[in-house]
Design brief:
Layout (H helix, E strand, L loop, with lengths): L11 H9 L12 E3 L11 E8 L9 E3 L4 E6 L2 E6 L5 E6 L6 E4 L4 E4 L4 E5 L5 E5 L5 E7 L4 E6 L5 E5 L5 E5 L5 E6 L4 E6 L4 E6 L4 E7 L7 E7 L4 E6 L4 E6 L5 E6 L4 E7 L4 E6 L3 E9 L2 E9 L6 E5 L4 E8 L26 E8 L1
Antiparallel strand pairs: 1-2, 2-29, 3-4, 4-5, 5-6, 7-8, 8-9, 9-10, 11-12, 12-13, 13-14, 15-16, 16-17, 17-18, 19-20, 20-21, 21-22, 23-24, 24-25, 25-26, 27-28, 28-29
Length: 363
């Protein structure tokens, strides 16, 4: 989940139009709303089972699923757009919030955005509760049920800021000595945080706010961006960009157990304990599914073709489906990551104008 510069913002009239929209019907992408699914691609049980598209403007990055409340959160420009997870009907927006991603605390029903300042609102009403000034440059964010805290990650120090999920007060900070990307919690008091520039995974005690160790990737992979955690079997799935590899580690001692190939440009990942599968979304338009056969045996089960730029994802644990987002580029603008002439672009592939495309991958 690399950082990027936002170059355009959500227009107020666009956000208003989205909020006023009725439940989307089966339509074409240009009309917004649900679209006919793309055909199944890749040899295996997974396929794109649903899609939706919404017009608009502004950069996007991470998508967040709230499986229990059936909400879908998509930061775009200066707002966090909120959709019904089952119908994709727009249900609201948190405005004046330039966020990278969000985290939902199921106990308090509070939602936090990795914005500056951090925005905190009620998940049920979308009413803003407060804004929380934090140091650094908020990027990733994670809810840790064990400590009752929200952890905000920044590439600049302090690398981690802990916030009380109940009242939004700052509990403390942690310097990791590197640039954090995705993080996961084992639910028992430990966080695992990828350090992109150090090619390792830092271990943090979420109660004491101390870094207790770091597991190197041993030259097997570099530039870690996505992360999956099998907390029950003490396994980390570290999705790297250079080379495009999944490095599988033991959380007990950092021992490297296996490496497997993935698609190009991983930016997000996770693990589904219900299916015993890890997954990584890539900017080349692929979703890699890795099957955990046992605590020591792993295989690439399937590479699903999604869409170029669909590099962030989130798991719907109720339906065992993976939700991804990307931008549908305007005609003549080139594919995500390319200029209009087809050359590679340094601009973020999910910045600027274009319809927001939501893809759902399932069995």
């Amino acid at each position: 989940m690399g950082k990027f510069n936002y170059t355009s913002w959500v227009l107020p009239q666009v956000a208003a139009a989205m909020l006023a929209a009725s439940a989307p019907a089966q339509t074409t992408p240009a009309d917004g709303g649900l679209m006919d699914p793309w055909p199944a691609t890749g040899s295996g049980p997974y396929k794109i089972v649903n899609t939706a598209s919404f017009p608009g403007d502004g950069a996007i990055h991470d998508v967040t699923v709230d499986s229990e409340s059936r909400r879908l959160y998509v930061p775009r420009g200066q707002a966090v757009l909120v959709f019904d997870l089952d119908t994709f009907k727009p249900v609201g927006a948190v405005t004046n919030t330039r966020a990278h991603t969000v985290a939902v605390d199921a106990t308090t029903h509070h939602v936090f955005a990795s914005s500056s300042p951090v925005a905190m609102w009620d998940a049920r009403t979308l009413a803003l509760i407060k804004t929380i000034p934090v140091a650094g440059d908020p990027d990733g964010i994670l809810d840790d049920p064990a400590s009752g805290r929200i952890f905000v990650f920044s590439h600049s120090a302090p690398n981690v800021t802990a916030i009380d999920a109940r009242d939004g007060s700052i509990v403390g900070t942690v310097d990791l000595g590197g640039e954090p990307e995705q993080a996961q919690t084992d639910g028992r008091g430990y966080l695992y945080v990828e350090l992109e520039d150090k090619d390792c995974v830092a271990v943090v005690d979420s109660g004491t706010l101390k870094m207790t160790g770091a597991y190197g990737l041993g030259g097997k992979g570099g530039g870690p961006e996505g992360l999956g955690l099998d907390a029950e079997n003490h396994l980390l799935f570290v999705f790297c960009r250079e080379p495009a590899t999944c490095v599988i580690l033991s959380t007990d001692d950092g021992k490297i157990l296996d490496t497997l190939p993935i698609g190009i440009g991983s930016d997000d990942g996770g693990f589904n304990p219900s299916t015993m599968e890890a997954f990584s979304s890539q900017r080349d338009g692929t979703l890699t599914i890795i099957k955990e056969r046992s605590a020591t045996s792993f295989v690439v089960e399937q590479t699903v073709t999604t869409k170029p730029g669909a590099k962030t994802c989130s798991l719907d644990t109720r339906k065992n489906q993976i939700v991804l987002i990307t931008l549908e580029r305007p005609p003549g603008a080139g594919q995500p990551g390319q200029s209009a002439g087809g050359h590679q672009s340094s601009r973020s592939p999910n910045s600027g104008s274009g319809s927001l495309d939501v893809l759902v991958v399932g069995r």
